[in-house]
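Retro notes, item 3 of 5
We never archived the inputs for the tryptophanyl-5'AMP complex last cycle. Fixing that now. Sequence and ligand:
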Amino acid sequence: MAGCRASVDLYDRPVARVFSGIQPTGDLHLGNYLGALRQFTRDQHDHDAVFCIVDLHALTVPQDPHELGRRTLDTARVHLAAGLDPSVCTLFVQSHVHEHAELSWLMECTASVGELRRMTQFKEKADKAPEQEFVAAALFTYPALMAADILLYGADRVPVGADQRQHLELARDLAVRFNHRFGDTFVVPAAAVPTVGARIMDLQRPTEKMSKSSVSPQGTVGLLEDPASITRKIRRAVTDTEVEVRYDPEAKPGVSNLLTILGAAVGEDPAQLARRYQQYGELKVDCAEAVVALLEPIQARYAELAAEPSRTAAILAEGAAKARAVAAPVLEQARAAVGLLPR
Ligand code: TYM
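Structure as it came back at the time:
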């Protein structure tokens, strides 16, 4: 890989480095789990894995200061409940490692306005904002911070859902450009997007992705939601007026989404699964059962962790120390490469 150097292994294992992040902007949902978090729990066993609750990213849209800290801690708890094991991976809060904000500036100086303007997530969010609404400059420069997050850890693999692909391509471009201009400094990262579940759609509006900021609570399945409510939402999921169960995301987005969710939950191909069903009702029943079974152990572990709040905080403190040990020398190398005076 161009401009690639070996990762420093936190645990003395000859493995590739994995890095990813999730924003603490709302309750994590099934899309976050199937697209990203579940990959994290798998990757931690055969990679040197670093995961981050990206609270600085959350500030790109208005946050209630009384809520942000609580949400950050809670998001970390959901990561642990989903199966992250702090004895084999690193979990920390972005703002606890100041190197992120600092490298972000160097990345803003490496990215062009044209590149940032092409980011579809920015265009979507900025376009959705009503005429007079405040749109933070940070919403525009956000992909530079995301690149900094990844590059600080020398990550070669970044598990994400499909909506982050474009940001990952930018992170790659910035790493290559920086290395080209200033000498070999950063590992060039690659996105790892799951084959099934990379884009889970809203149950009520199946042409839009399931989202934390959704205005459609009936279309979103929270990871901590109670089984009866999950079952109700899946049974009421929007399908279409046909009767045939077929995997065809273009023509049949609702049914295809249910097949994708079921397929991701049970580890089968959605198109193959479709052949087993004659009716939408049966598919919905099986899909709801599979999701409830998938989330049950996560919910049980979450309840245990919530009963012991200091445990998660201690894990995050330890994680920040481990993360800083990797990030600090990489930042120093980047500072030196661009010619900043040593401090
Ligand atoms: P965020 O917080 O929006 O989402 C977290 C992860 O969940 C995935 N995801 C989905 N996957 C499938 N279906 C969906 N409906 C769905 N919705 C969300 C996202 O792709 C993501 O992997 N910019 C990032 C956070 C970030 C980051 C990073 C990620 C900041 N720095 C560095 C990787 C590496 C974001 O807003 O994700």
